[in-house]
Amino acid sequence: MAVTGNGNRDESGPGPLAGLRVVELAGIGPGPFAAMLLADLGADVVRVDRPGGGGLAVDPAYDLTNRGKRSVLVDLKSADGPARVLDLVERADVLVEGFRPGVAERLGVGPADCHARNPRLVYGRMTGWGQQGPLAQTAGHDIAYIAVTGALGMIGNPGEPPAVPANLVGDYAGGSLYLVIGVLAALQHARTTGTGQVVDAAIVDGTAHLTAMIHGMMAAGGWQDRRGANLLDGGCPFYGTYETSDGGYMAVGALEQQFYDTFTELLGIADVAPARKDLARWGELREVVAARFRTRTREEWTAVFEGTDACVAPVLSLREAPHHPHLAARGTFTDFGGITQPAPAPRFSATPSAVTGGPARPGAHTESVAADWDVPALLPKDV
Q1: What is the tens place of the pLDDT at every residue in 182-198?
Q2: Residue-wise pLDDT tens digits, 239-298
Q3: Distance between CA 33 and CA 13 in Å, rounded?
Q4: How many CB atoms lie within 10 A of CB 61?
Q5: Catalytic residues
């Protein structure tokens, strides 16, 4: 627990962001995940939940995106709702919201309202389409955002529909992580100049940014603008997945010559495999590799390649992943509150972080936040 300059307590966890205060206006998807990452790194994140809940029908006890946070209940549509949030904002370093453009302003907690109370505030806005543009007011989800950026169209087998990568590429990679990068950059600016600003984190922008290397390769003639025809999209027979005899899969990434040589030797095809640089025979090479993988189980092939430079790994399920020897040795997953979950990342040598609390139940921390942040207006009138 940290103590702020005004003498109030902060429920900060261990980590490099200990002492940082974040107000999160409750939402779903990338906004809560971004705030979870800040909490993982030690920030005191207070989530402002609406009475009656909202969003996806997930039991709050299992919503890991709310781990390590505290929650208060505020009805922003009530007469005193905006004022209570602004009291928190006055004492905060960061605000995160994920409303459609203009909604926060109509509720009385938009950037102008917040900066009038706290000019140093970093105001983080998380949306799919961004704050401006023809689609800014249109509803959407991850799949639509990554579709228009070209990212979705790259994923999958030729002649088949694009494969949907859950909501990892858009919501979390193109959205949450870019919001956190923007917030941290704006915090540095605020601490240097004393002036806060608005961070407009749009999933379409972040996802498009993720494709920078591919655009460069395409411009250089090294990437075809179609699925399953390139080095990194499954078109290459030594960069892809193969089924084993028991219905499992192995992932192969033997791109460099020395790794490929190790791969073909351990797979037992070094003497029969077509030349890797003969693109006209890639189909034949894929068939040779696939046939060989089908001769043993996933466990058997894992034992063959384990600890080598062949760049081959078993494709594990979500339940299997925490038990992988390497991940277990590193503590990549942790158990907290009876739930196995990913541990905070990345890691820090001087300020290590850790999961310090389970998912915040809506309104469960009103009294502690009111005391620690010195916002008595949060308390019910009869307290």
Answers
A1: 999 999 999 999 999 99
A2: 999 999 999 999 999 999 999 999 999 999 999 998 999 999 999 999 999 999 999 999
A3: 17
A4: 12
A5: 141, 171
